[in-house]
From TrEMBL:
Name of the featured protein: 3-oxoacyl-[acyl-carrier-protein] synthase-3
Keyword Transferase: yes
Source organism: Anaerovibrio lipolyticus DSM 3074
Keywords carried by this UniProt record: Fatty acid biosynthesis, Fatty acid metabolism, Lipid biosynthesis, Lipid metabolism, Multifunctional enzyme, Transferase
InterPro entries in the record: ACP_syn_III_C (IPR013747), ACP_syn_III_N (IPR013751), Thiolase-like (IPR016039)
MF GO annotations: 3-oxoacyl-[acyl-carrier-protein] synthase activity
Family, per entry: Belongs to the thiolase-like superfamily. FabH family.
Presence of keyword Membrane: no
Location of the Beta-ketoacyl-[acyl-carrier-protein] synthase III N-terminal domain: 96-175
Domain Beta-ketoacyl-[acyl-carrier-protein] synthase III C-terminal residue range list: 238-324
Pathway: Lipid metabolism
GO BP annotations, alphabetical order: fatty acid biosynthetic process
């Protein structure tokens, strides 16, 4: 039994904000971002993405739900349990939340592969959803123009096959950089109830509090340029592949500048490489599956035997794998 991606769908909130700063638009490539409604949660969006996927799939066949989010509905219970009920899935279905950001989709595929190929599940519904906009101070223009909200649904299924559908997984973690992308207050370390609100204005006049999202963009950029190229090379080496053996490269869609920099340093300039953040911005764990859907609209799945995925960001974390999309409908 081998795990394969069979379907991917995504949902974008109705509200759209336009980036009006021309300098940032040119550098980041981000012109628009979708923003969740005031009462719209990550589970609301995940359910809508899943409903699109399940319109063509029997609910009774789903035997596990994986939900990736850093903006869950509650501290507890598990949001995946709530989603199981809202979708009307079997009560014999497993349900698990995991907290991950820009590498979250890679981890989800790895978990789904493990569940399927160890015989614990046959049809895994992998959901990602983020509402980072709720963490961002509207006067913090260091991060406001970058992040968009979204949700995705991926059906990973078991197939009788001698070839691999998901393979070449490579993970990495450097927790020493955790504070370079963080919401400092709100968890058990610094609870809302006992932590004083601190207002911060940086040298560029961006305003935030310690309850808002903070990102050291320069540190994240340096981190990505340092860890992605060697990880890519390790995946190539472990699987006896060369750069030209990959049919398409789909990295975490952070922004145009970072993607172009990675394309250059990874020596992928003349190879099929997805870079399209114009309509979405950085949607965190959603960015890779959204990119896959859009990329497959322009490329026939039967020509996508080897697609290299690479995520990197909050944690600090990075990870990559190769997927065979020839079975994706």
């Amino acid at each position: 039994m081998k795990a394969y991606i069979e379907r991917i769908t995504y949902y974008l909130p109705e509200k759209v904000e336009e980036n009006l700063n021309e300098r940032l638009r040119v550098k980041t490539g981000i012109e628009y971002r979708h923003v969740a409604g005031g009462n719209e949660t990550s589970s609301d969006m995940a359910v809508k993405a899943a409903e699109k996927l399940l319109a063509d799939v029997s609910k009774e066949n789903i035997d596990y739900v994986l939900f990736c989010s850093q903006s869950p509905d509650y501290y507890l219970p598990t949001t995946a349990c709530i989603i199981q009920d809202r979708l009307g899935l079997s009560k014999n279905c497993g349900a698990l939340d995991y907290n991950h950001g820009c590498t979250g989709y890679i981890y989800g595929l790895g978990l789904a592969k493990g569940l399927i190929e160890s015989g614990q599940a046959r049809n895994v519904l992998l959901l990602t959803a983020e509402t980072y906009s709720k963490y961002i101070n509207p006067e913090d223009h260091a991060v406001l123009p970058l992040f968009g909200d979204a949700a995705t649904a991926t059906l990973v299924v078991g197939k009788e096959s001698d070839s691999e559908g998901l393979y070449g997984f490579k993970y990495g973690t450097d927790g020493s950089g955790y504070n370079n992308l963080i919401v400092p207050v709100g968890g058990a370390r610094h609870p809302y109830q006992t932590t004083e609100i601190k207002n911060v204005t940086d040298r560029y006049d961006n305003k935030r509090t310690n309850r808002n999202l903070f990102m050291d963009g320069g540190a994240i950029m340096d981190f990505a340029l340092e860890v992605v190229p060697p990880s890519l090379n390790e995946i190539f080496s472990a699987n006896n592949l060369d750069r030209t053996d990959i049919d398409y490269y789909v990295f975490h869609q952070a922004n145009n500048f970072m993607l172009k920099s990675l394309q250059k340093i990874c020596k992928l300039k003349k190879l099929p490489y997805w870079n399209d953040v114009q309509e979405y911005g950085n949607t965190v764990s959603n960015s890779i599956p959204i990119a896959l859907v859009d990329m497959m609209k322009e490329n026939e799945p039967e020509n996508l035997h080897r697609v290299m995925l690479m995520g990197f960001g909050v944690g600090l974390s990075w990870g990559g794998c190769i997927v065979d999309l020839t079975e994706c409908l």
